[in-house]
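Appendix B, example 12.
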Amino acid sequence: MAFSAGYRLETTWFQGKEVVTQRRKRNMHCILGPNNMSPFDRHQMCMNVISWILYLGSEHQEFDVAIKWLAEFLKYLCGYTTLDEEDWLDTQCNSYYIDLTTKGRNTNFTRCSKTLSRELRHCSKTYLFDPRGGMNIVDLFDLMEGNSPKRNGMTGAQFAAFLLCNPKQRFFVGIYMQWEWYPYSSRATYPFDVRLSCTQGHSNEVVGPWSIHHPLTYDEAMCLGWIFHATDKSNMNSIQRYGLKTKPKRGERGGRDAAHFMYHNDNGQGYIRMAEGTTPPRHYRQPSYLVLDPEFLRSQQLFLAKNGVIFVYDDIPSRFLHQQDQLPTLACNVLTRGRGHMLPPSVTGGTWPADASYEHVRREKGISFVPGGPIPDNIRTTAWQFMGQEIPQNYGRLVFGLPLAREADFDPKNESIHALISEGSQQREESEKDDQPMGNPYEQPSRRAGSSQQREEPADQWEQQRSSSGSSEPPTR
């Protein structure tokens, strides 16, 4: 690796990186490596190695075709491009996107995408996967056989564009840098181990959700908006009878390790942003939406993926699912007539509900908070940070700005920012039941149903004439 140190400084793309605007988000890869190396050093090592292989190695013909194909793939995937190369990549992404989303088309790119997804999600050879569900790219292409990118003549740059434009954004690339690299030995090694994985839809039980997804707390889940499952209306009788079932089937289609949900909001203040997976993935003839009851979130663990898909690794009884015929937006009154979705008080006002339990508060703070101890230096990653956002100010001050009291001394009022509490869940439900749907504010009171008999009559004849003529002066006699 010493030969390639600092070689990135001599490349054209590095010298002009300040003026290059990336046309595509590079959020589907992660550079990993030795534990005693900082993320910044890993990033520099990756840039140096790729520059060495593509420029010096290509000039002197020192490396084989396979390693140069991988280096070109990582160059475009990570965004080590010039302005012209970035324009070319954007054009390729647009072209591939049309092929992948046009209904009825059966091109090489469509077959490659389906085969790639099938092998990463349903392959029965579990020994090829790591704990994060990743498979070495060479082993993966061997399993894909005739539908692999190399067999179809795709270059490394084209394969990078193919992944970046995928409409469901379900693929992820792990780049594991190696401390040592022997390119000139009798048995040449690679400077990196490239592993591809899928973020959703597995049926082979190879993915550990705690290692690749974000575990949602109750308040974080309530900041997603309505969480729902999209299906066809023909499935409703079965779901209402048995609920949603998870049926892992190793190597077979039709089963899933987890039930898949999505969410919808207006990307407003306090809400967790919507990602690519938050749009309904299929076009059903008669779509139906099953909204998850917030009461289910109190006792079950939900996981959030980078592409916005939510996973529940357990069966869901039908009593926690509320059927809706339209997309459940924030204004949709799923639970209470006349009232839509609401953010939790920890985000809106920096307070805990009156009936907040000690375990609820402790879970929001994370395991780094010791009861009765000081505020820790390192806090947990929140769902907002996981999706590339900043933590809401009130939530951050409430959850991470105050120490965790001992359970015997716990009082929701003392744990809030301004020593205030909000309504408990039971009180809130009772007040919601008393609320009446808002009438039409543009409707004249005299024209409302039943109001003509209750309307007060004018006290004298002049008042009656003034109300009909609109004049403020009394009539002349």
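The two ends are 108 Å apart (CA to CA). Residues 345-432 form one domain.
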